[in-house]
Design goal:
19 helices, two-stranded antiparallel sheet, mainly alpha, two-stranded antiparallel ribbon, 4 strands, elongated, 3 domains, 473 residues
Length: 473
């Protein structure tokens, strides 16, 4: 092939790329009212081979690039159909070779690369195992062949991403400072950020954060929808959501509708926004409303029981933690006697006996309740073997007991045996409300260690409640 032929091929390829990008760049000018005239060369349907014309086209693209921020690119890609994968690839091929490597270019590549990877290799939100090889292969059309490298800062990225995987809510993530830590680490790379091998690792990190946001989004939205259902079943139709920037009597039906609209902002990069915080605030508002209901029921049912009922001694458990006098599901000791009818108090005694018999200290331990086993975290073991009558320890003990009862009841349902699932769920809801009260008190007195332990046990109980609720359907 002659030099002239090669030149014509290159010119034709340059025109194809320019014409593919022009509708997007023209939309940027129109949507954001940029003070840049449209390109007459690109509006002309004839591809001209003169170098001065092509230079003029490239200068026009560069002028738009200087005026456009990544947020505008993000907004336009999400609001209009530009053929996502093909357009993302064209935008990357335009931005990657740029010589002026500044913060604006870094932010654009940050967004475009992770969006492109997400477009060509979709993952489930709970799938955190994204390998460098997978990213390398997916980005080859835009980066070319890249030799994978391990950088000193890769471990920092993995630490941040692993911590994000450990977050339970969007509010927890946004308040953790992890997003800012990741962003600062990328900024500290300076010019080395733009190396192809570094871009592979950065994209892998960004995508893990993106998966984390999607996972937490699903968690928050699921909790909101579930809370809406519970409140409606209680006869509640409106909730005061002024803290979230909504109405003082926001209809629950509106919140259900907003759950669908809240999904839209999460197509953005992982960068935190007001909509993320609003979602977390609404979740907290509804959760507190549900917990308040169960706490009210717990208080009402803690009145003196009829003669013959089993009660908890006041000196053992604070009044706020007295178990309501409701029937509880059967459990058995680990001696194989399935005829034994157990209450929460008997389950707590059974767990304590096993822990002391095993001479447990404060390490993770497994105990048997009926036909099932429960894994107790170190702080939960500590609450039994060292706790005494401290309110926080008692709250953890009773939440663990309620979790064991509920888990055993759920297992019986799965095996087709007789069960008392409704009573176990009600007891678990009561203990979930009461342990949240202790979390708040621990925070008020500045006891962060207790607050963290209480919250972790509450989270484990709520997870079992959530799974068991599905069995009622």
């Amino acid at each position: 092939m002659s030099t002239a032929t090669v030149s014509l091929v290159e010119i034709a390829a340059e025109w194809r790329t320019a014409r593919r990008l022009y509708p997007f760049y023209a939309a940027l000018i129109r949507e954001f009212q940029l003070d840049i005239p449209h390109s007459k060369d690109l509006e002309n349907p004839v591809d001209r081979p003169e170098h001065e014309v092509l230079d003029r086209v490239q200068e026009w693209f560069a002028a738009v690039d200087r005026h456009v921020q990544v947020a505008q690119i993000r907004q336009l890609l999400q609001s209009q159909n530009f053929g996502e994968e093909a357009m993302l690839r064209a935008l990357l091929l335009r931005h990657l070779p740029q010589d002026h490597k500044d913060e604006n270019l870094r932010e654009k590549l940050d967004y475009l690369l992770v969006q492109y990877f997400a477009a060509v290799t979709p993952h489930h939100p709970h799938e955190a195992n994204v390998t460098g090889v997978e990213v390398q292969e997916a980005l080859q059309p835009v980066l070319g062949h890249v030799e994978l490298r391990q950088f000193p800062w890769t471990k920092e990225f993995d630490k941040v991403a692993n911590a994000v995987d450990g977050c339970a809510t969007l509010s927890e993530l946004l308040d953790s400072g992890l997003v800012e830590l990741g962003r600062n680490t990328k900024t500290s790379l300076g010019g080395s950020y733009f190396q192809p091998a570094a871009l592979v690792e950065v994209t892998r990190f960004n995508f893990r954060l993106r998966l984390g946001f999607f996972r937490l989004m699903h968690s928050d939205l699921h909790s909101i929808r579930k809370a809406v259902q519970e409140l409606e079943a209680m006869g509640v139709m409106t909730v005061d959501c002024r803290e979230a920037g909504l109405g003082s009597e926001e209809p629950l039906a509106t919140l259900r509708t907003l759950c669908h609209q809240w999904k839209k902002p999460f197509r953005e990069a992982y960068k935190a926004g007001q909509s993320f915080r609003q979602l977390g605030i609404v979740r907290n508002i509804l959760s507190k409303k549900v917990m308040a209901h169960w706490a009210k029921r717990a208080k009402a049912s803690s009145e003196p029981a009829p003669s013959g009922s089993v009660t908890v001694a006041p000196e053992t458990v604070p009044p706020a933690l007295v178990l309501p006098m409701t029937p509880e599901p059967q459990v058995t000791s680990d001696n194989g006697d399935h005829s034994h009818s157990g209450s929460l108090e008997q389950v707590l005694e059974l767990i304590s006996e096993q822990l002391f018999a095993g001479k447990q200290k404060t390490t993770v331990s497994t105990v048997s309740v009926g036909e099932s086993q429960q894994v107790l975290a170190s702080w939960e073991v500590n609450a039994f073997v060292r706790g005494g009558d401290d309110a926080s320890c008692v709250a953890i003990q009773r939440a663990v007991g309620a979790r064991a009862l509920l888990f055993e009841s759920a297992e019986k349902v799965k095996r087709g045996h007789a069960n008392r699932l409704v009573e176990a769920l009600e007891s678990a809801h009561v203990q979930a409300a009461l342990i949240q009260e202790q979390v708040a008190k621990a925070k008020d007195r500045g006891d962060i260690d207790s607050a963290v332990s209480l919250a972790a046990t509450a989270k484990r109980l709520l997870a079992v409640i959530d799974e068991t609720e599905k069995l009622k359907a």
